[in-house]
Amino acid sequence: MKNTALKDLNVGLLGIGTVGGGTFNVLTRNAEEIFRRSGRHIKITHVADRNLEAASAFVAGKAEVTDDAFALVNNPNIDVIVELIGGYGVAKELVLTAIANKKHVVTANKALIALHGNEIFAAARANNVIVAYEAAVAGGIPIIKALREGLGANRIEWVAGIINGTTNFILSEMREKGLAFSDVLGEAQRLGYAEADPTFDVEGVDAAHKLTIMSAIAFGMPMKFEQAYTEGITKLQQVDIKYAEELGYRVKLLGITKRTEDGVELRVHPTLIPEKRLLANVNGAMNAVVVKGDAVGPTLYYGAGAGAEPTASAVVADLMDVARLMDASSAQRVPYLAFQPEQVLDLPILPIDQVSSAYYLRLRAKDKPGVLANVTKILGDRDISIDAMMQKEPNENDTEADIVILTHITVEKNMNQAIAAIEALDAITGNVMRIRMEELSK
User: Fold this and answer.
1) Which domains does the chain possess?
2) Of 1, 129, 210, 227, which residue has the fewest beta carbons closer than 10 angstroms?
3) What's the whole-model pTM score?
4) Known active-site residue 210
């Protein structure tokens, strides 16, 4: 009987930290299952890591170890490079060098893809190699595969997701325990959910990287991270989470991208969503993404968005795709951005002031007659209709009270004008708190 076994896939692993270690373990533990699925033995033959001692101890003689990452991308015996070092300086140089050397690339680096994906995909196309990046978005959730392949028959209408576990953990703890943002952030750092410098997470940058990638695949357009509107959770107060709950809503940091007649919305910000929505009930450090297709309707993808083996699951799945398709022509492979290269369109991104949304407003007002009339007139003059209103009784000996207003959908620039006019009223103290609202139902 003729031996039809395919050549082994030799892998060079750049970085054997949390995800790299998970990838090494999953490949080792599930080697037989992976072979049965992919038709090739996938082996990490070389590892590059700055900590030679720790890396050598981890691989225990099962792979060659070096502290020179460029030695791996230039090694002719390595078929595919797995880039897990992060950042977009030396990582970009290593990936482009690997591609120039006709090596396939698997990466979990969302910042690299969001900022430099257009250049990387062009280079990969010119060299007829695969660049796979499932692990760059939502850890072990196969959302890239779903967008690129599973939902390929659909015209994607919108994508909305909880795609940063750190901020979701913080918001969940603030709601469940009634704690302030600063207190929960400290707890998140202690538990390892948040970095010592949590800026990328709490200011929404990490989520914007991931949203940029999903938007490009969903709508067939280049990566446009620099045009994404990004607003984090640092200004959220516990009282707003409490009031939202009283009104039947939860506050989540969402990445939202929508196709409209005027352009594509690309925005990350705190959002009120009805508590009955599945997305509203995703708590802790978990991730979830809802994709609305014209044929299939809303579909939900839920799971661990980070961690050693959840992310390794996506990395290894990408390696298996490379093993299956490395000998195929580019025409037989799924395009990098799901659409054929000549069909990727430079769609305009809507500025945030042109986006339409409903709003939650909280204002601090002096407890005297006429205040509500002035506020409702300001909103009415700008065609902003009120959906619900809640006035909290002032505390004893307090002359000010909170007023909470939920509006119907309006254009952001109208809301900006209304907020400026409300803040200018003598009876209003401090700034108006504004949080956007989404129904996510159609």
Assistant:
1) 9-140+309-343 (3.40.50.720), 143-304 (3.30.360.10), 355-437 (3.30.70.260)
2) 1
3) 0.95
4) yes
